[in-house]
Amino acid sequence: MKSPFELDRRNFLHTAAGGVAVGSAALRSQLTLAAELHDGHPLAPLPSHFPAKAKRLIIFFMTGGISHVDTFDHKPKLNTDAGKKTGKHTIKASQFPFQPYGESGRMVSELFPHVGSVIDEFCLIHSMTNASSGHSAATLGMHTGSVTIPLPSIGSWVSHALGTFNTNLPPFVVFAAREPYNAYQCWDSNFLPGFHTGVRVVPGPDPIPHLDSRVKSVKRRDLERIMLRDLNEEHLRVHPNDVQLRTRMTNFNTAYGLMQEAPEAFDISGESQSTLDLYGVDRADRKSFGWQCLATRRLVERGVRVIELFDVGSNSNWDAHGDMETHRPLAKKIDQPIAALVKDLRQRGLLDDTLIVGCSEFGRTPWEDSNPKGRGHHAAAFTTFLAGGGAKRGFSYGSTDDIGAEVAENKMDVHDFHATILHLLGLDHQLLTYHYSGRDYRLTDVAGNVVYELVS
Predict the structure, then answer these.
(1) Of 77, 148, 299, 310, whose Cβ has the fewest other Cβ atoms within 10 Å?
(2) Does the pLDDT value for residue 238 go beyond 90?
(3) How far apart are CA 57 and CA 294, in angstroms?
(4) Inter-helix orientation angle 414-424/154-162, to 10°
């Protein structure tokens, strides 16, 4: 499925021109109010409900289901009881040794030595659950709070609630070399205004195609843009509630600003050698996960509010039914870059007000799958993490039983997870509502509790 907001100038502008199908009276009034309060730009920064710990949000999503019991939830009994039956299942040992890291002494497997080196910055949640063990539904749930029907993504909700710091760049940027399950629905704004949809960057040598043609005709394009702006503004003066036009105007302006600023933001050639070494990239890199993480830091510095990075593997993702050894190259690809981003943000004074979130749609079973070398889907208990942005450092929340099969303490569902993330961003998840099709919607539906134990 092709995203309608893939980062391609022609696709972007074509989609923007098509508008977004919205139309409630409440939506019109909200857009009109936003324009009046913020100099006509609905993406200008908005105040949070209360003082925020975090100003920005970065999400790492490990598509396919990373194994909690082979990474951050150490379960020695898996190895001592390997081969024994638990009900109808056969317990499977972990082939990845764990060791303590940091002042906290938290156990991390050999898959993530670089993350282990900064583990004291992390708040680990060991008691996460999801309502579905199917990839598509579970991925949708982690992004929208709904495992049944597509709704606005968490990034779109944050963009809608807080706006952005730089209206020349999208408020919500998505790095995705390949499409995850549900494709663009993971970053779609759905019934929220279309300019809150995530803009997809496809890592590669030309992340913004057709840039040369833009440069060659910039004077004519500037003139056309000014004329179109004047016509649109005159139309809005007479018809202030034309939601589709306001959306198209915002998308056109963002696309134009993006073409001006994004090339420099994505160009890492001017970074110091020590920074390049930290991320494990070279100056010509435009594709690796290290480049994506370094570009994320550069976008954060330039005012982008929300950035999500999808790790979907090269030839596979984390869905290790056949052989857990596939976790090894996948972890190697992301381990150093994630740790580097944490260190880099800390060094630059940005980590304290930038919230980093890491998750999969679920974990993996403590027992063998149909292939004894693999593990199956496991939504009943898995691990996610927070770092920076007011999350408690060096802290572990919740626990699982002796083999990581069930939550033993402090169960946390997706609505609680989202409510806590929004709280760190200064947002009350019960107040962040949007009236659409006769009812008020929110990211957490009619559930969710902030887990204050995770807040520093």
Answers:
(1) 148
(2) no
(3) 15
(4) 30
The residue ranges of DSSP E strands in 252-353, in sequence order, are 306-311
Angle at the Cα of 189 from the Cα atoms of 27 and 429, rounded to 5 degrees? 75
- Beta strands 89-90; 363-368: pairing state: unpaired
From residue 177, give the alpha-carbon distance in Å to each of 265, 276, 330, 337, 387: 18, 21, 14, 16, 24
H-helix or E-strand containing 209?
Answer: none
- DSSP bridge partners of 433: 442
Structure-block tokens of residue 177: 């070399």
The SS3 call for residue 378 is strand
pLDDT of residue 142: 98
Helix, strand, coil tally for the chain in percent (to 5): 40, 20, 45
Q: Which two tokens stand for residue 91?
A: 């317990």
Question: Does domain 9-454 match CATH 3.40.720?
Answer: yes
Q: How confident is the model at residue 334 (pLDDT cuts 50, 70, 90)?
A: very high
Give tens-digit pLDDT for 43-82. 999 999 999 999 999 999 999 999 999 999 999 999 999 9
- In this structure, the number of other CB atoms found within 10 A of the CB of residue 273 comes to 9
Rounded CA Rg of the chain: 22
Residues in the chain: 456
Q: What percent of the chain has pLDDT over 70?
A: 79
Burial tier of 103 (Cβ tally within 10 Å: 0-12, 13-18, 19+) = exposed
- What is the average pLDDT across 383-410? 98
Please state the pTM of the whole predicted model: 0.86
Which residues fall within 8 angstroms of residue 412, CB to CB, at 6 or more apart? 125, 127, 128, 129, 397, 398, 451
Phi and psi at residue 143, to the nearest 5°: -95, -30
Instruction: Kindly give, in sequence order, each residue whose CB lies less than 8 Å from that of residue 329, ignoring residues fewer than 6 positions away.
Output: none
**Residue 393 burial class via C-beta count within 10 angstroms: exposed 0-12, middle 13-18, buried 19 and up:** middle
Q: Would the pLDDT of 406 be above 60? A: yes
Give backbone dihedrals phi and psi of 58, rounded to 5 degrees, phi first.
-120, 130
